[in-house]
Amino acid sequence: MSQRSDCRYQALLSLTGETTGNVNELMLQWLQGEGATSNTLADAWLEYLASEGFTGDRNTATFNWLRDKGYTGALPDMLYKMWCVDGGPATVWYVAATGTNGDGLTGETPWVGFSNIDWASIEPGHILDGMGDTYADAFEVAVSGDATGNVTIRNFNMVTAADDAVLTRSLGVHYDYLTFKDVNVVAAVRTGIYITAANVTDEKHVLVHDCEISGISGHAHSYGMRIVGRNVVVNRTAIHDVGEDGIYATGNGLSVLDSHIYNVSQAAAGRGDCIQIATESEGYTITGNTLDLRGGTNPKQCVVARVSQTGARGLVARNRCYAQNNADTVNTKSQCLYLANADVYDNECSGGTFSNWYED
To answer: Using one digit for the tens of pLDDT, what is the confidence trace for 143-157?
Structure first.
């Protein structure tokens, strides 16, 4: 038996409560306990993946399911981490906006409200599921994953009058190794999702994907996302209808991929950007996005990198950018790109001016 198979066997004994048995029979028993109805292992596994929201052939669905849980690397590596490091598929904890407070172990017995979340019970690789409820309080995440797996925060709708709807800080402590999935912010004053750190050089290892952020207004600087710290990825996320910048980031290793940012610079003062990278920004990657300044109040750039590091470089490629002429006598034309020392190719731009370059 290979090491991974042995790990899976031990994990399945724990998951099923058995003390012995055939690994395939144990796997089928566990899958049926999770709601699968098929009596064949391959079909039961596909049923389970579909119930988690992942379809397609077995390898593709399994790969996407593991990535969604915060694992990284090739499929065999992720399977090894899941079975041999984490002891099996991730534990899911549940929280609801209303109801009777429970133990958080099932959708029928969720924790109710953010104040009742038992953060100490949530470990690397675990998932906190908001059950698609709508929450009015600011959501201060108070747990970190680690190098073995992120903690995933998923299925939350945020409509709040607080300054920041979601932030990775609680009681002055900053948290990292987090994944946000299907977190939808409909209203906040200053920031939709705020990735916090004590210093721009702090490692965050945060992934934000398949989220939507809108309705951020009322502060002197209202951002869809504000990011402090290194190694943050924003993927397949929509950000729109914000007072100033779609994303305002400081820190190396930022990636914004396949996202749609539009209707920025909506405040009366305007002069916002779709993506602004400030101060430290070595190794940023901005690719495959649709960035639209049209309709904003005197917007500035689709992508701007105002860096302080000598020789810092980034990649800006395959983006579709829409700029516009402005009424502002100072900022008369918005620009698609305003960059320092970047590798730039295959970007499409219409309106305003294409680019303005400066060198450190």
So the answer is: 999 887 789 899 999
